[in-house]
Task: inverse folding
DNA sequence: CTTTGCACCTGTTGGC
DNA sequence: TGCCAACAGGTGCAAA
């Protein structure tokens, strides 16, 4: 048994991974936050390894000097951003379309697309992998809420600020299709391409309908269904995470019961007619033409 | 101001 | 089998 295996066996360091979701919408980012939180809070950062700084924006050259010597105080999520707060500022992480974070023994060999390690004093590290490099890792001093990328974001869908009344007011005079409206992060955050389709199915609303044609009653229903599907997905994410701790496979969405996303041609779970696929703003949308009006 | 389409990247899939 | 086009879960930005 190698020294590393021995340490693992003795649980001196975590076996591995947390949250290798490959398609991060809000529930996946929330699950990631919960997954890494117990393994990074109050950990002192001893090194930062940037193997490839070419993410959506270049990883700042000063990032290591900002981080090293600091200890992470809190892990928060705002929209699809992870906020790792420390005394002198905040590390902002966005997973883009293909990013994931894992907790690993710091000496785990890096593989392709493992771009950044944040190394802790206990010889574990937080490792960012992101094949498409649409993600971001940025430093923010001061209030992260005032950061350019965060300040215009809409309310959290699971918070008090998002309900039917809010949605009704926000949709007035907006001609864009409701599905694209829901994916606008300045209206409400965290709803991505999958959950937009799913929430509209649950609410019985046609994704092509103009936002300002949605009634007050429908807005209430839609806000409720958005909360429902996100809560459900987070709960499933938690399950997935538990099941996968100690393994090294991607978790993905296979445990999630989706009604319409990716189900073109399949029978609608409610009425049996074929699920349709259309394009809206260069994104795929799935819906039931019978149930969603 | 709202809306639209492009761009950024790599990897996978399906059709020929 | 190989090749190539199409597509993939996000989002800032320029242009209309």
Result:
């Amino acid at each position: 048994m190698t020294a590393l295996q021995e340490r693992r066996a003795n649980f001196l360091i975590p076996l591995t991974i947390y949250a290798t979701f490959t398609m991060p919408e809000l529930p996946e980012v929330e699950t990631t936050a919960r997954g890494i939180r117990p393994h990074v809070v109050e950990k002192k950062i001893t090194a930062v390894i940037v193997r490839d700084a070419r993410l959506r924006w270049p990883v700042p050259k000063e990032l290591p000097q900002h981080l090293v010597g600091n200890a992470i105080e809190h892990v928060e999520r705002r929209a699809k951003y992870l906020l790792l707060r420390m005394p002198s500022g905040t590390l902002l992480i966005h997973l883009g379309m293909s990013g994931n974070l894992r907790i690993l023994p710091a000496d785990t060999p890096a593989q392709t697309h493992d771009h950044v390690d944040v190394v802790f004093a206990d010889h574990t590290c937080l490792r960012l992998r992101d094949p498409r490099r649409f993600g971001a890792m940025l430093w923010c001093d001061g209030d992260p809420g005032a950061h350019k990328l965060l300040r215009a974001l809409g309310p959290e869908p699971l918070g008090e600020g998002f309900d039917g009344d809010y949605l009704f007011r926000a949709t007035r005079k907006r001609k864009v299709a409701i599905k694209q409206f829901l994916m606008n992060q300045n209206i409400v955050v965290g709803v991505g391409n999958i959950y937009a389709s799913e929430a509209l199915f649950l609410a019985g609303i046609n994704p092509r309908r103009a936002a300002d044609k949605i009634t007050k009653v429908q807005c209430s229903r839609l806000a409720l269904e958005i909360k429902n599907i996100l809560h459900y997905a987070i709960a499933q994410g938690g399950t997935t995470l538990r099941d996968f701790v100690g393994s090294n496979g991607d978790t993905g969405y296979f445990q999630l019961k989706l009604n319409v996303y990716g189900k073109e041609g399949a029978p609608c779970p409610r009425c049996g007619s074929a699920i349709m696929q259309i394009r809206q703003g260069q994104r795929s949308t799935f819906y039931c033409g019978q149930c969603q009006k």
Q: What stands out?
A: Confidence is low (pLDDT under 50) at residues 6-18 of chain A. Residues 54, 56, 96-98, 113, 130-134, 173-176, 180, 281-282 of chain A lie near DNA strand B (CB under 10 Å from a C1'). The domain at 3-146 of chain A is CATH 3.20.190.10 (N-terminal domain of MutM-like DNA repair proteins). The helical segments of chain A are 3-9, 26-40, 63-67, 164-171, 178-182, 193-203, 216-244.
